[in-house]
TrEMBL record, chains A, B, C, D:
<dbReference type="Pfam" id="PF13662">
    <property type="entry name" value="Toprim_4"/>
</dbReference>
<keyword id="KW-0227">DNA damage</keyword>
<feature type="domain" description="Toprim">
    <location>
        <begin position="81"/>
        <end position="185"/>
    </location>
</feature>
<dbReference type="GO" id="GO:0006310">
    <property type="term" value="P:DNA recombination"/>
</dbReference>
<dbReference type="GO" id="GO:0008270">
    <property type="term" value="F:zinc ion binding"/>
</dbReference>
<protein>
    <recommendedName>
        <fullName>Recombination protein RecR</fullName>
    </recommendedName>
</protein>
<keyword id="KW-0863">Zinc-finger</keyword>
<dbReference type="InterPro" id="IPR000093">
    <property type="entry name" value="DNA_Rcmb_RecR"/>
</dbReference>
<dbReference type="Pfam" id="PF21175">
    <property type="entry name" value="RecR_C"/>
</dbReference>
<keyword id="KW-0233">DNA recombination</keyword>
<keyword id="KW-0234">DNA repair</keyword>
<keyword id="KW-0862">Zinc</keyword>
<dbReference type="GO" id="GO:0003677">
    <property type="term" value="F:DNA binding"/>
</dbReference>
<comment type="function">
    <text>May play a role in DNA repair. It seems to be involved in an RecBC-independent recombinational process of DNA repair. It may act with RecF and RecO.</text>
</comment>
<dbReference type="InterPro" id="IPR023627">
    <property type="entry name" value="Rcmb_RecR"/>
</dbReference>
<dbReference type="GO" id="GO:0006281">
    <property type="term" value="P:DNA repair"/>
</dbReference>
<dbReference type="Pfam" id="PF21176">
    <property type="entry name" value="RecR_HhH"/>
</dbReference>
Length: 206, 206, 206, 206
């Protein structure tokens, strides 16, 4: 029904999360009314992403490829004393913007599935294990692993899974495992707070 | 347009929070298809509320009037060691259902307004002051006041206001003032967590 | 957990359409802060509804009971030339407010269920049949029955069901059956219009 | 904060309608986990759109550029008997998919603004005027112009504006102007129908 190049582009937009056929075609028609330079600039930016951005081989954040180095500046450094484990790139950004965390990260790329099948996330948890095996050899004191997964069923299941995988390091006192503090968060109305949150909020009162 | 008794009842339903004319008339027509006994039972339940329920003169929760006593069983007791200050009756219920709090409450009936005018809420904060003046005279150790207002702008403003009002008691070490612990709450996705919540969540990690 | 009279009233409010336990208890606590006169006025209005309002025995709209008469003024009149069949009391109100329809109504009290079981609605469709059997005897020309059910699956199914039930009258030319005109309605954006609506909108263009 | 190429691409995605910074960055990170071929394919599809798709010089729909021809097959034909005037490319698609309209279109590219300033839309209405001036010279009978703008305030204002602009052609009987039929549309519940829609639905009943 559409001209072919429109249809092809609609299909690319539909691969993006949350984009259905209607919104994808709205995108394409919006672009059609932009001048050609803009569309070409968009295409170039995509090409540049493909050529120059990769994931750090150690912490999996997105980095600009420089020379032949495949790890980010932070992971290239010698010492890491703490690692914040997050689900998504966006979580890393949210926390990074606050300036509250200066130490290393580990990006899981999502949460584990209920089927416990091998996925990108379990691969990256395995990579976290290997990373710690390597790093703890030379560390002077236990590395702190902060599990900063979301306070959702999936996030909690993922944190539990990681706790089990990393248990050997905890036993050997090579790492300490912590989880983010729970309580009422900005915007919470008491009437709608769940028992678990209330319990933590009362316990951590001060 | 409607028969008069329908119109009158529609207006009563519209006094309830969140109910507009459309929903109010839906209520009335639903009742019209109930049998007369049900409608009369509803009317009786309202009458009974008016006759037999009142607010405790000390903590302002809803109680059944018994004899001439105007305070709830808890406030009638001699000793109170801690008071949980909540905005609404529903907050009291939410917490009370968890069984996490066995001590006394103080129901504010809402939050203070930005204009700082005299309202039901400021009256009840004044009553809290008087309550403490009376109670701390005989208390053996400082009474803990837990400010359990919502983590909203209005809730925070109300907590701050109460802190200022109760400051004299704190200085004389007759009370201690605490606030609910903050952190990520059940359901929070890290990507959408605000800086203040993240800060508390990182600080309270364990 | 609540005082008994509160619990009882919460349960009455929960019988109203769309009202869950949370909102029901919000209603009761709102009432508790009203003065006693208001609550008693509410109870009286309910009592008055039970005593003085009923449904017209012929068209089923809500009417004030007067003397022993059980039909509305309109149905008490001798001649009816057209009947607008609506699902709900609120539909009657919506149309009645526009002043576009001066003739008689028939309120179904809902839509037929998919199970085609005997319900209030099928009873009232049967009553419509009887009403027509009686009215067409003396009518000088065919009575027009306008099926004004909603343009939803349920509304359409109900209209179809009524068409089948009233078919004998149509064959004998005692009534004419019409349905509301279809097309784009106020607020419709063309992008989201369904094929059936577009078809009618194009066919009825002018 | 992000690597530069990510930031640049985020900004391109943010030019798309309804896309904020959060969703734009989600798009980029999703792409980062696709293989390079896919990203390059996406870039190529954008380049192809820029090179090979344009708007028909007469009706403004999106078409593949062929040779030097700048009008679509339909506009290249000799005879046009009716033109359906739509706001957006998506409206054309919605209608075109139904197969209900086989004749010509005119895509406005939006609605007129309240300020009545010169915009793409007013340019295309001017182009419609010119198109008719040219086409009606050779037409054997009046061309029908169907104004198929949305049933919204903006759509109605745009239709009114076009009616004024095309009035001379109507007076000379060179065109006829029609609008889509109004009535209840699929999904409309009677309770929520507006008076204008009810009026049309009653008038067009059958």
């Amino acid at each position: 029904m559409y001209p072919n190049p429109i249809q092809k582009l609609v299909e690319y937009f539909m691969r993006l999360p949350g984009i259905g056929p209607r919104q994808a075609s709205r995108f394409v028609y919006t672009l059609l009314d932009e001048d050609i330079k803009t569309i070409e600039g968009f295409a170039d930016a995509l090409g540049e992403l493909a050529r120059t951005v990769a994931r750090c081989a150690e912490c999996f954040r997105g980095i600009e490829k420089k020379n032949s180095n495949s790890v980010c500046d932070q992971c290239a450094g010698n010492t890491i004393t703490a690692i914040l484990v997050v689900e998504k790139d966006q979580d890393l950004e949210t926390i990074s913007k606050t300036g509250l965390w200066q130490d290393a990260y580990h990006v899981l790329g999502g949460t584990i599935t209920l089927l416990n099948e091998k996925t990108r996330v379990t691969d990256r948890i395995r990579a976290l294990y290997d990373r710690l095996a390597r790093r703890t050899k030379t560390a002077e004191k236990p590395i702190e692993i902060v599990l900063a997964t979301s306070a959702t069923t999936e996030g909690d299941a993922t944190a539990l899974y990681i706790e089990r995988v990393l248990e050997p390091f905890v036993k050997e006192k090579k790492i300490t495992l912590t989880r983010l503090g729970r309580g009422i968060s900005t915007g919470t109305e008491m009437e709608f707070a769940d028992p678990q949150t209330l319990k933590n909020a009362l316990k951590n009162r001060k």
